[in-house]
Amino acid sequence: MEDLKIKNMVKNRHLAKSIHDAGWGAFRRMLTYKCNRNGGKLVKVKPHFTSQDCSNCHHRVKKSLSVRTHVCKHCGTVLDRDHNAAINIEKVGLNQLGLTPTA
Ligand SMILES: [Zn+2]
């Protein structure tokens, strides 16, 4: 998962309500607990450009927070913004563990 700095994010009044509503901190604590309990490992990755970079070709596609679809003119990839970010986060996390993503 992204290693988001929740304390800093709630200072942004545009993001604060969403973050509190999502119970983000509680979710992260539960996920850590579940991973530890089941022999897994929660990998935290730096959140830099996870939603900007194309998960297919790594081309950086700048977009504001309100743009919810990732459209890469470089390779033609079109994905939901969060799906694109999730693929990038998975790749970085696996890389941190010395593993490679499966197709
Ligand atoms: Zn691309």
Structural features, described:
- The chain is mainly α.
- The protein folds into two domains: 1-42; 43-103, no CATH class.
- The chain is 43% helix and 6% strand.
- The chain has four helices and two strands; from the N terminus they run H-H-H-E-E-H.
- The protein has helices at residues 6-9, 13-22, 24-37, 81-96, and strands at residues 69-71, 78-80.
- Strands 1-2 form a two-stranded antiparallel sheet.
- A hairpin with a 6-residue loop joins strand 1 (69-71) and strand 2.
- The chain is flat.
- The two termini are 20 Å apart.
- The mean pLDDT is 89.
- Bound molecules: zinc ion.
Topology, element by element:
Blueprint: H1 6-9, H2 13-22, H3 24-37, E1 69-71, E2 78-80, H4 81-96
Antiparallel strand pairs: 1-2
Bound molecules: zinc ion.
Protein name: Transposase
Pfam families: Cas12f1-like_TNB
GO molecular function: DNA binding
Keywords:
mainly alpha, 2 domains, two-stranded antiparallel sheet, binds zinc ion
Instruction: Name the overall outline.
Output: flat
> How much of the polypeptide forms β-strand, as a percent range?
5-15%
Tally of domains: 2
Number of helices: 4
Instruction: Please tell me the overall pLDDT.
Output: 89
Largest beta-sheet characterization: 2 strands, antiparallel
- Name the poorly predicted regions: none
Measured as a percent range, the helix fraction is 40-55%
In angstroms, what separates the terminal alpha carbons?
Answer: 20 Å
